[in-house]
Amino acid sequence: MNRGILKNGISAIVPLALYEPNFYPNFVSTINKNIDKVEEVVIVNDTLPQEIPKHPKIKFVATFNKAASVIFNKGVENCSCEYYFFMPAGVILNSNITKEILRWDKGKTGLLFSDYYSETENKLVTLFDYNGDITERFNFGFLEIYKKSVWQKLKKYNIDYSTDIATHYDFKLRMKQYNYKFLHIKNPLYRVLKDEKISSLFSVFRYLNYSPQEEKEIETVFYNFLQTTGCFLSHKNYKIRYPKGEKFSPLVSIVSATYNREKWVSKAIESVIENNFQDWELIFVDNASTDNTSSIIQKYAQKDKRIRLIQLPKYQEAAIAHCLNIRNKICPR
Predict the structure, then answer these.
(1) Rounded (5°) CA angle 19-22-26
(2) 142 near 91, Cβ under 8 Å?
(3) I want to staple 90 with a disulfide (CB 3.0 to 4.6 A). Which of 25, 135, 146, 198 is the partner?
């Protein structure tokens, strides 16, 4: 581990060990486009692929372990800079990124994130300030910049977790417990190239495609956080007994406000259908979608009477609140 004085620059960590070889060309292209904007590029993998260019800034760290936490720790251990990030393929840094980070970083900061320019949408994407969200779903964009000094104080990434999403989630919650700030830099520090395969890895809707292992680890991270902060409530479930002859059915109403979610709505419906509990109704309030969202829902509704669709005639700005109010007005229970 580098125990000397950390440079006031930025290290890019490329955790190739987490990716299949078909992703390597994307990373090679990204490295070539960014190598002059960082102090060093630390590549973590079992072997150094031949496609990786020879360059004095490139440092190779070998590991045969496939756990994200171990791979991340290996990368950070070998960084010589105070600031580091895990380099996503398809992201191009601005030439002034280090200067901007040093200008913005004041006080007890643990994580920095910024607005960015999307070539897919051909526009500047403005992110929200961090609002204290303790779920794993807050949108930090494609680039999360961390500090090695904070990593050292928190005693590295938790090796109890093997998935990248749970490893990062646990680290962020521990930073919160130590009152480190999550700083939003309100200038674009990078561009995201058009590549749907890469973008899907960082989508705010990624949670819809979590693997069973990711779901299990994320749940464990959250429960551990509640326990360590004294917020975990344990209780015994009691069976509810209803008066004779009185039946409440469906027992559970699930309401979903939708707008242009044709890629995701089937997954949402299937997740409800596959649940062990079956005494439910699923009500979609569609906010005048312009894609195939409503037709997909209608196909499911024709097969399963527990699924219902309410379509709004025109788009409403206060979308979620309006859709939920419409549901309560039309279908009171």
Answers:
(1) 85
(2) yes
(3) 198
Token couple for 3 = 């125990």
Q: Which two tokens stand for residue 14?
A: 């490329």
CA nearest to 136, candidates 201, 209, 219, 13: 219
Helix (H, G, I), strand (E, B) or coil at 182: strand
Alpha helices, H only, the chain:
24-34, 68-77, 97-104, 148-153, 164-177, 196-199, 212-228, 265-273, 293-303, 319-330
Phi/psi region, residue 107 (left: phi>0; alpha: psi -120 to 50; beta: rest), is left
Pairing assessment for the beta strands 280-286 and 307-311 based on DSSP bridges: parallel
3-state secondary structure 188-253: CCEEECCCHHHHHHHCCCHHHHCCHHHHHHHHHHHHHHHHHCCCCCCCCCCCCCCCCCCCCCCCEE
d(CA 199, CA 50): 25
- Give residue 327's pLDDT: 56
State how far the alpha carbon of 227 is from the alpha carbons of 67, 136, 222, in Å.
25, 17, 9
Cβ atoms < 10 Å from Cβ of 324: 15
What is the mean pLDDT, run by run of 10 residues, along the chain of 333 residues? Answer: 69 95 91 95 95 93 96 97 95 95 92 93 91 91 96 97 96 96 96 63 64 94 94 79 74 88 90 90 91 95 94 76 62 52
Amino acid at site 206:
R
81-86/7-14 β-pairing: parallel
Q: At which residue do the structure tokens 């549901």 appear? A: 327
**Domains of the chain from N-terminus onward:** 7-223 (3.90.550.10), 252-330 (3.90.550.10)
**H/E element holding 44?**
strand 40-45
Q: What gap in Å lies between CA 185 and CA 148, rounded to an integer?
A: 19
Give CA–CA dist 12/34, Å, rounded: 9
Lookup: tokens for 101 = 């980070």
What the block records as the tokens of 285 is 């309030």
Q: What is the pLDDT of residue 15?
A: 96
Task: Specify whether the CB–CB gap between 115 and 127 falls below 8 A.
Answer: yes
Give the orientation angle of helix 212-228 with respect to helix 164-177, to 10 degrees.
10
Distance from the first to the final alpha carbon of the chain: 61
